[in-house]
């Protein structure tokens, strides 16, 4: 199933991603952000589940199942570009800034902001076409809400 997902991510642009694929791409990107510092904290996992529940109107079990599938996809993905391309193609700019905000929520969930996480968020924002100013604003909104 994951192999089919990656085939769809790398397919010709005339084949739009399904909503299911876009969800999995976002979930995998959230998992990647959480794992970037080498510590996949329970607080980060809980944030991922809550983000998926809220964003997609999922129950707890469905959000956890999506996250577990995303963990497998993230482990199999050679790079972040596949996920960001899928999101960029499927999501309008305003919602991509919300994706960056969700990523900051996950990164900051464990109370530590590692250099690797900062680097991933800079690259991810760029790949999503989100400006540095909007990414910084998203981080500040998350920090203010904490």
Give a topology summary.
Elements: H1 2-9, H2 19-35, H3 42-56, H4 60-76, H5 81-90, H6 93-108, H7 115-128, H8 132-145
InterPro entries: DjlA_N, TerB-like
Pfam families: TerB
Domain Co-chaperone DjlA N-terminal: 23-139
Which features does this protein show?
146 residues, mainly alpha, TerB-like, 76% helix
Describe this structure in words.
It is a single chain. The protein is mainly alpha-helical and 146 residues long. The protein has one domain (2-7, 19-145): TerB-like. Helices cover 76% and strands 0% of the residues. It has helices spanning 2-9, 19-35, 42-56, 60-76, 81-90, 93-108, 115-128, 132-145. Helix 3 (42-56) crosses helix 4 (60-76). It is globular.
Count the domains.
Answer: 1
Unreliable stretches, pLDDT < 50, 5 or more residues? Answer: none
Overall radius of gyration: 14 Å
**Please, what is the average pLDDT?**
87
CATH topology value: TerB-like
CATH architecture: Orthogonal Bundle
The H/E string reads: HHHHHHHH
Structure in a nutshell:
The protein has 146 residues and is mostly helical. It has helices at residues 2-9, 19-35, 42-56, 60-76, 81-90, 93-108, 115-128, 132-145. The chain contains 8 helices and no strands.
């Amino acid at each position: 199933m994951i192999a089919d997902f990656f085939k769809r991510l790398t397919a010709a642009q005339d084949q739009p991603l399904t909503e299911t694929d876009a969800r999995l791409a976002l979930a995998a990107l959230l998992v990647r952000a959480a794992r970037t510092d080498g510590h996949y904290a329970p607080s980060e996992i809980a944030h991922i589940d809550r983000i998926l529940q809220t964003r997609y109107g999922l129950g707890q079990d469905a959000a956890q199942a999506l996250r577990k599938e995303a963990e497998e996809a993230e482990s199999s993905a050679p790079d972040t570009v596949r996920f960001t391309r899928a999101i960029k193609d499927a999501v309008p700019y305003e919602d991509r800034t919300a994706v960056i905000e969700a990523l900051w929520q996950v990164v900051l969930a464990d109370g530590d902001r590692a250099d690797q996480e900062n680097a991933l968020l800079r690259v991810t924002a760029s790949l999503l076409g989100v400006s540095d100013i909007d990414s910084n604003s998203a981080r500040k909104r998350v920090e203010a809400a904490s």
